[in-house]
Amino acid sequence: MDYSIFIGGAAGQGLDTLSHILSKILQRSGFYVYTTSDYLSRVRGGQNFFQIRFADHLIHSATSRLDCIYALNHEVLLQHIDRLQENGLALADEEVPALDRLTRLPLRAIAEELGNVRVFNSVGLGYILKVFGLDFDRAQEMLQQIFVDETMFELNVQALHKGAALTESSVPVVPGKQRKHILINGNNATALGAIAAGCRYYCGYPMTPSSSILVFMDAVSQEMEIVVDQVEDEVAALNMALGASYAGVRAMTGSSGGGFALMQEAMSLAGIIETPVVVINVQRPGPATGLPTYTEQGDLRFVLHAGHGEFPKMVIALRDGEDAFYQTARAFNIADKYQIPVILLSDQYLADTEVTLPPFDFSKISIERHLADAQAYGPGTYYRYQVTESGVSPRLIPGARGNSVIVDSDEHDEKGRIDESADNRRTQVDKRMRKAQGLAQEVQPPWEFGADAPELLLVCWGSLAGPMREACDQLNAQGLVVRALVYGDIWPFHTERLHALHAQAKKLVVVEQNATGQFEGLMRQEALIRADEKLLKYDGRQWKSDEIVAALKEVLS
Amino acid sequence: MDYSIFIGGAAGQGLDTLSHILSKILQRSGFYVYTTSDYLSRVRGGQNFFQIRFADHLIHSATSRLDCIYALNHEVLLQHIDRLQENGLALADEEVPALDRLTRLPLRAIAEELGNVRVFNSVGLGYILKVFGLDFDRAQEMLQQIFVDETMFELNVQALHKGAALTESSVPVVPGKQRKHILINGNNATALGAIAAGCRYYCGYPMTPSSSILVFMDAVSQEMEIVVDQVEDEVAALNMALGASYAGVRAMTGSSGGGFALMQEAMSLAGIIETPVVVINVQRPGPATGLPTYTEQGDLRFVLHAGHGEFPKMVIALRDGEDAFYQTARAFNIADKYQIPVILLSDQYLADTEVTLPPFDFSKISIERHLADAQAYGPGTYYRYQVTESGVSPRLIPGARGNSVIVDSDEHDEKGRIDESADNRRTQVDKRMRKAQGLAQEVQPPWEFGADAPELLLVCWGSLAGPMREACDQLNAQGLVVRALVYGDIWPFHTERLHALHAQAKKLVVVEQNATGQFEGLMRQEALIRADEKLLKYDGRQWKSDEIVAALKEVLS
Amino acid sequence: MTVYQLTEETAWCPGCGNPMIRRAVQQALNELGLPPEQVVMVAGIGQAAKMPQYIEMNSFTGLHGRSLPAAIGIKLANTELTVIAQSGDGDNYGEGGNHFISAIRRNIDIAHFVHDNQVYGLTKGQASPTTAQGQITSVQSGGVKAMPFHPLAMALVTGAGFVARGFSGDHEQLVTIMKAALQFKGYALVDILQPCVVWNKINTFQWYKKRVQPLDDNHDTSNWDFAFAAARQWGEVIPTGILYQVEKPTYDEQYGFITGSAPLAARELAPQQAEPLLQRFY
Amino acid sequence: MTVYQLTEETAWCPGCGNPMIRRAVQQALNELGLPPEQVVMVAGIGQAAKMPQYIEMNSFTGLHGRSLPAAIGIKLANTELTVIAQSGDGDNYGEGGNHFISAIRRNIDIAHFVHDNQVYGLTKGQASPTTAQGQITSVQSGGVKAMPFHPLAMALVTGAGFVARGFSGDHEQLVTIMKAALQFKGYALVDILQPCVVWNKINTFQWYKKRVQPLDDNHDTSNWDFAFAAARQWGEVIPTGILYQVEKPTYDEQYGFITGSAPLAARELAPQQAEPLLQRFY
Ligand SMILES: Cc1ncc(C[n+]2csc(CCOP(=O)(O)OP(=O)(O)O)c2C)c(N)n1
Ligand SMILES: Cc1ncc(C[n+]2csc(CCOP(=O)(O)OP(=O)(O)O)c2C)c(N)n1
Ligand code: SF4
Ligand code: SF4
Ligand SMILES: [Mg+2]
Ligand SMILES: [Mg+2]
């Protein structure tokens, strides 16, 4: 069992609420849910849509085919009706012009009859629930949560039932069995990961699609005792986070490409003052403003080479909600251990897509601060940049009696004082760069899916994990012998498995969500391996599993 | 004939004036001159020095060995006396403690006798001129230029002669014959190139070592009718330059790494609005503040991947003063032709080193604006982002009656209006990216020096050109069969000659002025060629030709 | 009226103040008879900054917070252009705060129209620098902690020669102010109170309507103290109109060569004209 | 006196005002008996910003223009620290202009000491935002075209609770001001007039000396209008001292949880404390 319901219309027509309610009902009814959204950069109007896929088995991607379309206007219907499955159902209000295969319902009429046009969507919801034979108790529960006002709640419940009364259950649905999953999007998972890791300071400047991290952090700020701050600009943001980290708290900031661009100088500062910090770039298509509400993996190389000058850093691409949670928490440990900036690379697709996942296991998170013991240092004996074999110097935070904690953006000596001599420069560069050796040990291999001795090796990274995983399954099911590598840790770069599988496979295809194949370039640079083919998508819409399959077949044929 | 004179002391002791006068005397006496400087980031004190090399043949590098040291204090003398040649001369005032091989002179005593301690250095200058049998007329000419005040001029001339009277000419010097050369540093050459190219707008925020471009541009602003503006910050700078360029003038801005870092978002803006602009990054060692007055090639990859999102750009590393002039002028043509940002990559070494060069040939500069003809467009028929085969759209500037010139940082349609559809996105990305094909045709091959069928291939880029050229000559003279490739155009990357020579040579060694071998990584990425060895220097001091020779011999042995 | 045509569709919400401001700009430009090829509108990013999308004219829509730098570059390159920087409060007083100060200090000859809805509209209602202290938003769920920014008082203190406050709901006054700003030689700030019906439920149309009070037509616009007091008035009464208007030398004209003959953008370029500069290096 | 030790050597020029300011900071810290482990000095980049190099204390020398953001981050992470942001006029009013406005609006509890030599010292004498209009420099060979920035007036207009002007040549007053600023709960601005003997030949020690005039010790520091007038006075007489001092709620304390018990930086971290947040997603 595996269905996709499409909800489309203009911004401001309540699509998001409807989609949220329906997704939650499906989750609470025990299905696996995967809800993607497609919205324009505007507050009202335009053509937006949500696509809710649900199934009785694990799912990892949106699909092109639709089983049900609920359209709030004519345009959106026309744009997507081609994707409707043979037995699919297209629904719209009577006001929408007639169309082949379209069922027109008196949604508005019923709502008006009930005395409030705004319950329009609840009529539609009732209809859909009924068609799929879904649980009305769950629906009522959700409506209660959303509509705090008792009369509005009652009205919506009535609308629900009026809608249901218009039809019969007609689509075969097996009862959902997965009762314990959470439904969460990537940004919230990231925020939870940060909080679990003990992040006490999060600041940022609003920027789609990163803003919801700021929103979530703010919402729990008091409860979790986290300083959450909307600041004057992104230049300030990273400098502030570094100040907070220097003073001893775990600190993080985030933005999308344009805001991340404004953090470049401070990124470099993190490098030389060796102050840990976690920064997330939730990518959207560029350049500049680009497509603010769509998705892309276009900042990979920009992020990899962020900041002027040379210093060790780590770059981790988040692959799905679960990964977002655990990797974000891990990022703080690595940042602290090596006293470096760790950059998380996410994207709008991962940020906004809501997926059912096993509840995150907070007991798996450990907090490793790697702070030095102030007691160990007699007065005046502490040197912030002490030269060590690992390149990591003992880190104290201000407050140690008798010892100053001095950080400086100029090249400095062990104590933290400006020293422009050639000898000192070499010593300190070498010290900082030695951290790269330890860091290389931390790198986790890419995820692998599919057949063991592959003829075809697929390589991708980040949020393509889900679609790729499904595509890989489908390809293998169709008789190809395919294995997929999905990179999470991007830098340092992991080469071992890539070399091994490349040696086995006849063909290597890289799949990316950008126009230039940025990861493929990195692969050439680090592994001297060139892809045989590159599948690149850069229209702002995420690869779906079936699209990958189709595109692959085309290049292979 | 080939001598190096060292002038060292503390900031504020007039080293720069002395060095400038001596360099000019040597230039005007017909020698080839190569003056490097080594100064700390402070206005007073510390240990700074200048090194003036002059010869009767072309020279391209500083050298380690010194023929004359003029030291204004004990410390600087101690630090450098080891570099003095066997017959070399070390000079200092009597107040400096005695030292083996040091000639102590009554510099201060004579100056005081003349009634002004500040003529101290002219006594020293007189001594040096005499020792090397140099022309006193030239000296007087220079003093006149520097000391506008008649009494000060007279006093300095007297000092000069008093100094000369202390010694005899002892160093064999052949008369210089090269009368037509200019003496110029890289930043001034760059500024001249920009002005020759018709740059009408230059803005920036002071930042060592880029500031002198701003200073020069300001000095000639009225004469050349160029708007030169010190602005509030580097974020503003590039946005302003883009505004100016949109309005129709050739515009440029510049900074060093930290300031360049603040221009990242606007770099990306240039990419999507397709507005030509030239930006120079005069590199200094990072990260962050780093070594503000020293040199490094540490920003290569940062610059290459500047700006979030994907868009075509060109990166040109300047190799010497002449190259700085011609390439800067060329950058404007390429920026205009492809409507892209062109980034010039210089560094403190090139910026500050003063070299005698053949006068720049302004008749070789052509100005190619590639502007469309407003007359060709009937009312409402002009589309700023018209889709073309080359990817380059006709460019009008505001002022065309009946047609609006619309640029937008959002993804836009041909007219310049926001269009977030997938189709339009692909169309516009493809259009922009097609420019890369034309751009690839513009790429100039790297410079080549040395033996024809090399056993050893040396590869470097940018300001290492000079030292590398000399090193290459020396190695070949010593019987090795060496050829050097010196990259100027960095992006798009030129591979043909590299592949050809790599196939011939037994060994490939990359020489860079950074700690991680950034260019070598690019070579792996673009040519799948890994260097056999990397010679990396990252102490802020430029490779000298003899140092390259020595380091090479070590890795080869 | 065929110039400065307005698009039929916009992405603005019904009830939003932006369309009103658009009408006012259009009318001001038309009444002044400015030929559209001589006018450029520069915007940042935000709801207000979508303005150039919806008027047929030369435009430069750049980065969030950076409309002023781009506008300055344009003006210096071609002083014959009438340059309008048009953007939101977040854009100009938040991300672009440093440019705002600097534009005033420069007294560059541009008209600066700020749509001040006291909120970040496009990004869904976070506090802007002009949001009241204590106001609750999606990211300030505990209420805004910072004190609000006072653009007009700031401008006056920093030496602005033209300072005005408009209201999207007072069309006629707004047109008058805009015309004066466009004709003013020097930097002219017009802070325009604008309701955002979706994200700002405090400073609604009614809220503004009740408070705005046009200044007496005959008040002395050269009286700085009066203007300063009016700029700082923000309560039951919010004075609107041209608070202050006194010309002083502009940045652009101080370049000397910039005006006269052709605009810089139209001057001939000849490399050899620069050759005499070589003399400095012989 | 063994705490806050001064280094013997500095890179400052003989005659520079910076060493005087250093002595004043040291004395103020010592007289207040602030334990050095509880104090952090934050600087940007510039001659003034070298200060932390030359005093033995906790310090964070960050980026040019960014001392305030770093200082704010530090304060929010540990409200028990006394945080001093100490940097130049270029740093704070030029590159860092946006942070300056924002720090004032936040009323964050830090002391802000600006060495105002009306020039960019470290980079060799270009105009800073406080350089007088018309003054000639290496990059403004035709004279500065922009009007100067007025930090004190700006701060008052933007709601600062503590605004003072010092002079590096009046040691005693400077120490008094600094002590008050350090003890003030909230953002405290001290603009310190400081001669730069190398790059500013106009605003010399003598120039300042002739003009500075300490305010009457007993003047009412809660009188905003008086303070504003004094802030704007810049001519034959330049009033110095604490112009204004009135406490209001600070940004930090508005977080509620931030004060009390241990500073944030010292609180225990336990991942499982966050587990209840999962409830929101069932
Ligand atoms: C560097 C950068 N940061 C953040 C954003 C996201 N952003 C776009 S518009 C906006 C706020 C708009 O507020 P305002 O300027 O007041 O305009 P309004 O939408 O209210 O008209 C923000 C934060 C961006 N585009 N670029
Ligand atoms: C991003 C950036 N831009 C420019 C610089 C170069 N810079 C260093 S200090 C300085 C000016 C310092 O002036 P001010 O803050 O007044 O300090 P002063 O030296 O006068 O004490 C500048 C422009 C820099 N370090 N970083
Ligand atoms: S969200 Fe607010 S500012 Fe934006 S269009 Fe709607 S009403 Fe106007
Ligand atoms: S240059 Fe000026 S500010 Fe810098 S140390 Fe010298 S006198 Fe002081
Ligand atoms: Mg707004
Ligand atoms: Mg200064």
In brief, what are we looking at here?
Chain A has 19 helices and 21 strands.
Overview of this structure, please?
The complex is a heterotetramer, with two copies of chain A (557 residues) and two copies of chain C (282 residues). With 557 residues, chain A is of the alpha/beta class. Chain A has four domains: 2-164, Pyruvate-ferredoxin Oxidoreductase, domain 3 (3-Layer(aba) Sandwich), CATH 3.40.920.10; 183-364, Rossmann fold (3-Layer(aba) Sandwich), CATH 3.40.50; 371-442, no CATH class; 447-556, Rossmann fold (3-Layer(aba) Sandwich), CATH 3.40.50.920. Helix content of chain A is 38%, strand content 22%. Chain A is built from 19 helices and 21 strands. Chain A has helices at 15-28, 74-80, 107-113, 120-131, 136-146, 150-164, 186-196, 211-224, 234-246, 257-261, 264-273, 300-304, 321-338, 348-352, 422-442, 465-477, 496-504, 518-527, 545-556, and strands spanning 2-11, 32-38, 45-55, 66-71, 84-93, 102-105, 182-185, 199-204, 227-230, 250-255, 277-283, 314-317, 341-347, 354-357, 406-408, 447-450, 456-461, 482-487, 489-491, 507-512, 533-536. Chain C is α/β, with parallel strands linked by helices. Chain C has a single domain (18-279), classed as Rossmann fold, CATH 3.40.50.970. Chain C is 28% helix and 16% strand. Chain C contains eight helices and eight strands. Chain C has helices at 18-31, 67-77, 89-95, 97-106, 151-157, 171-183, 205-211, 224-232, and strands at 39-43, 58-61, 82-88, 111-116, 162-167, 188-193, 212-214, 238-245. Chain C has an eight-stranded mixed β-sheet with strand order 2-1-3-4-6-5-8-7, sandwiched between helices. In chain C, α6 (171-183) links the parallel β5 (162-167) and β6. The longest helix of chain C is centred in the N-terminal third of the chain and has 14 residues, at 18-31. Chain C is globular, with a radius of gyration of 20 Å. Chains in contact: A-B, A-C, A-D, B-C, B-D, C-D. Chains A and B meet through α10, α11, α12, α15 and α18 of A and α10, α11, α12, α15 and α18 of B. The complex binds thiamine diphosphate (2 copies), iron/sulfur cluster (2 copies) and magnesium ion (MG) (2 copies). One thiamine diphosphate (TPP) sits between chains C (45-48, 64, 87-91, 95, 115, 117, 119-123, 128) and A (205-207, 234, 258-259, 262, 289).
